[in-house]
Amino acid sequence: MQRAVECGANCFQIFSSSPRTWQAAPVKPEDAEKMRRLRAEHGITPLTVHASYLINLCSQTESVRENSTRAFRGEVERALAADYLVLHPGSWKGITRSEALRYAAENVERATDGLDCHASPLRILIENSAGSEFSMGATFEQIGDLLHLLDKCAPVDACLDTCHTHVAGYDLVTAEGYEETLQRIEQTMGLRRVRVWHCNDAKAAMGSRLDRHQHIGEGTLGAAAFRRLLQDGRFAHAAFIAETPVDNPSDIQRNVSALLALAALNA
User: Which of 64, 121, 161, 222 could in theory staple to 198 by disulfide, Cβ–Cβ 3.0 to 4.6 A?
Assistant: First the structure.
């Protein structure tokens, strides 16, 4: 929270526990209250929580799905006072895409069963992947299909990552390609359902399927692509959050400042 304030951000993302372990402690009420107070004091919204990287709700292995469902339920419980909870649905191999889609939807429904998500500000955001063959969310169509299945059981929308979108083969770089990409988003899920953009430049080429984040303006996306996205009124409702590399402590300020400058830059 303090780092967000110091670098001039008006929204931020956290993990509610270690993203690389199954164990997680509950959020202390006094910590939750302190977070609410500081957010109100500094006018920071939305608060986004990113779910554990271990969660794989569409795995072909039943034990992995069981562990993932329990872990995701804990994520939802800890994030009920937040605005968004970002989820990578997972990956599969050895089963069909339709089976993986069904597993993911069923296990999100199980993880939220009995929790009054509709009474809280929380929305679950399905994030797109970098395009690996067996990753759920490798295409906008997959995200749209999953949102359609989940609409009946939980408040859900989408989170798109610029690096993932780029390396999955969607063009955000050229003006014509950008418009074609937005048409695909509108057709598959709707632009209004994109609540968060993870802003990351890419080290790898478009269509490479290699998820390697780079500092803003220093990768294969380039500064102009971020300027176009940040200034697009069709995403005025969305939050833009950097997940760029932190090679030294100044990198957080450096990338947030780059995004703020591009957002404010006159045409």
Answer: 161
| Token duo for residue 201 | 């430049």
Q: What does the pLDDT look like over 40-70, one tens digit per residue?
A: 999 999 999 999 999 999 999 999 999 999 9
The total of structural domains in the chain comes to 1
Q: Of residues 3, 33, 37, 53, which has the active-site annotation?
A: 53
Instruction: Tell me the whole-structure pTM to 2 decimals.
Output: 0.96
Q: Is 41 a catalytic residue?
A: no
Active site residue 161: yes
Exactly one of 73, 123, 193, 198 is catalytic; name it. 198
Confirm whether 42 is a catalytic residue: no
**The domain that contains 106 carries what CATH number?**
3.20.20.150
Express each pLDDT in 107-126 by its tens digit.
999 999 988 877 889 999 99
Of 83, 145, 157, 161, which is the active-site residue?
Answer: 161
Domain that holds residue 229: 2-264
Chain-centre distance for alpha carbon 89? 11
Cα distance between residue 126 and residue 101, in whole Å = 12
88 assigned to active site:
yes
